[in-house]
UniProtKB/TrEMBL annotation:
Coiled-coil zones: none
UniProt membrane topology term: Single-pass type II membrane protein
Protein name: Dopamine beta-hydroxylase
Subcellular location: Cytoplasmic vesicle, Secretory vesicle, Chromaffin granule lumen; Cytoplasmic vesicle, Secretory vesicle, Chromaffin granule membrane
Principal subcellular localisation of the protein: cytoplasm
BP-aspect Gene Ontology terms: dopamine catabolic process; norepinephrine biosynthetic process; octopamine biosynthetic process
Organism for this UniProt entry: Spermophilus dauricus (Daurian ground squirrel)
Length: 599
């Protein structure tokens, strides 16, 4: 039980402060543990939603002259919110600090990190300190529900002052975590649970940047109906950086059998029939861990009316084009014959994978939005609605923020999932703090913010790692026929945009209709006019809706040239709740006596 081992680590640090914290914060979420630097730094933390603060415990092995730890927007050491332990060769100090855009460190006028304990132990130095979620200090990081980029640095030698510390000379790094995990207990796995591994068959990973590998396998003959209650990734050792994301699909029961295949998904040798294997059973992406279904729901597979054939799709990201690497990664399913009350499902929200949705180059925060319209939910959802309990956000390399909002009767009512510091390198399936109910006629709006400052050409939507996606895989129950509810701008209106850009520019540029959409975007001269008009086009032009069944066929109806949903009232970002200042907050660094016993 990983939870119990984490508690042991925490409980092994003696002292009244720890006991006081445990009793005071009895409502706190269980302790989490992450290794920041193998063999050097180990971080545990404990969250109190009642007190709205986080207790951090940092174990420093082989302490030299100090350590800095903190948070920043994207994991950079510049413009970071830091806590620093350092020595001047005589005394040791602990202080709340911040770094400027040149990486210089300054003492924070408002000391919001409070040191509770510093203690030498046989394992190393243990620092116990706390900080509120929000401090309303402009130099401090706002701790939110989504991804947090933790940064650290090891001080190898004494410094006469905090300001003398030079970040560029330190051994530094970052680790991404979700600090504010929801208070959702891990459901017990039923006693009759069995496991099944769906793995790539010793694939030779192509020495290409992006490969989608497809593999067909099948369930045993006569495999009865079961519920999947949990699944987890199996990554071949050494390939952790190459396996970008994986999905297990079930094939349609329309066909009696499917040909066996193992090869690139875009291969000309791939049987056409594999396009009918689109019903999602499990979805994993880089950074995610084991996924549990709520006790009242499970994902059904097997039994009558269900195909025995499964398709594993593995996305390999091999930017260095490493040759000769073999892989047997996949997903381990945990399933039970004791069926739960509801069948669960996975639905894709956001943008269709199409080049008509594009981001101009040199943009710091360009937003694209995909819709699941009221027309689609009215037609495809049951009258009692569905309940979303988990969500996995997904973009490629330029994604910086993702949010899905629920709107009812033209008014945004609640956030389904939001990550203001989203990283494509940390795509967990996250349990929601609160189950979100979606009813017929509701609208789900998914917006992704992109940064293309380092790109010279437009970034178009598509499957390649250098193309972009904007997806929210929502996990919900009871399952419906609706598997994909996404949109894209109407292609005809995009052609009007290219025509307009052509008229305003010299004939050196050709965005002519006979070119492909990616070619047209590559020809656009990016200036304030072409950027603003594209932004305006996406904000008003009609959309093409994909309101799809798991068979990849749209629900009956007219889905092209659909108006954008009318939203008359939007949700505001919540205002941070500032804590009342305690008299105990020191004006400057705390002198720390590091020895055996507490300081």
């Amino acid at each position: 039980n990983p939870g119990s081992s984490r508690r042991c680590r925490w409980a092994s640090i003696p002292g009244p402060n720890m006991r006081e914290a445990a009793s005071m914060y009895g409502t706190a979420v269980a302790i989490f543990l992450v290794i920041l630097v193998a063999g050097t730094l180990e971080l545990s933390w404990n969250v109190s939603y009642v007190q709205e603060d986080v207790h951090f415990q940092l174990l420093v092995r082989g302490l030299k002259a100090g350590v800095l730890f903190g948070m920043s927007d994207r994991g950079e050491l510049e413009n970071a919110d830091l806590v620093v332990l350092w020595t001047d060769g005589g005394r040791s100090y602990f202080a709340d600090a911040w770094s400027d855009q040149k990486g210089r460190i300054h003492l924070d006028n408002q000391q919001d990190y409070q040191l509770l304990q510093a203690q030498g132990t046989p394992d190393g130095l243990v620092l116990l300190f706390k900080r509120p979620f929000a401090t309303c200090d402009p130099k401090d990081y706002l701790i939110e529900d989504g991804t947090v980029h933790l940064v650290y640095g090891i001080l190898e030698e004494p410094f006469q002052s905090l300001e003398a510390i030079n970040i560029s000379s330190l051994h530094t790094g970052l680790q991404r975590v979700q600090l504010l995990k929801p208070e959702v207990p891990t459901p017990a796995v039923p006693a009759d649970t069995r496991t099944m591994e769906i793995r790539a068959p010793d694939v030779l990973i192509p020495s290409e940047e992006t490969t989608y590998w497809c593999y067909i396998t099948e369930l045993p003959q006569g495999f009865p109906r079961h519920h999947i209650v949990m699944y987890e990734p199996i990554i071949t050792e050494g390939n952790e950086a190459l396996v970008h994301h994986m999905e297990v699909f079930q094939c349609t029961a329309t066909f009696e059998s499917f040909p066996h295949f193992s090869g690139p998904c875009d291969s000309k040798m791939k049987p056409q029939r594999l396009s009918y294997c689109r019903h999602v059973l499990a979805a994993w992406a880089l950074g995610a861990k084991a996924f549990y279904y709520p006790e009242e729901a499970g994902l059904a597979f097997g039994g009558p009316g269900s195909s025995r054939y499964l398709r594993l799709e593995v996305h390999y990201h091999n930017p260095l084009k490493i040759p000769g690497r073999r892989d047997s990664s996949g997903i381990r399913l945990y399933y039970t014959a004791t069926l739960r009350r509801f069948d669960a499902g996975i639905m894709e929200l956001g943008l269709v994978y199409t080049p008509v949705m594009a981001i101009p180059p040199k943009e710091t925060a360009f937003v694209l939005t995909g819709y699941c319209t009221d027309k689609c939910t009215q037609l495809a959802l049951p009258s009692s609605g569905v309940h979303i309990f988990a969500s996995q956000l997904h973009t490629h390399l330029t994604g910086r923020k993702v949010v899905t909002v629920l709107a009812r009767d033209g008014r945004e009512t609640e956030i389904v999932n939001r990550d203001n510091h989203y990283s494509p390198h940390f795509q967990e399936i996250r349990m929601l703090k609160k189950v979100v109910s979606v009813h017929q006629g509701d609208v789900l709006i998914t917006s992704c913010t992109y940064n293309t400052e380092d790109r010279k050409l437009a970034t178009v939507g598509g499957f390649g790692i250098l193309e972009e996606m904007c997806v929210n895989y929502v996990h919900y129950y009871p399952q419906t026929q609706l598997e994909l509810c996404k949109s894209a701008v109407d292609p005809g209106f995009l052609q009007k945009y290219f025509h307009l850009v052509n008229r305003f520019n010299s004939e050196d540029f050709c965005t002519c209709p006979q070119a492909t959409v990616p070619q047209q975007f590559a020809s656009v001269p990016w200036n304030s006019f072409s950027r603003d008009v594209l932004r305006a086009l996406y904000a008003f032009a009609p959309i093409s809706m994909h309101c799809n069944r798991s068979s990849a066929v749209r629900f009956q109806g007219e889905w092209d040239l659909q108006p954008l949903p009318e939203i008359v009232s939007t949700l505001e970002e919540p205002t941070p709740h500032c804590p009342t200042r305690g008299a105990q907050s020191p004006a400057g660094p705390t002198v720390v006596n590091i020895g055996r016993g507490r300081a």
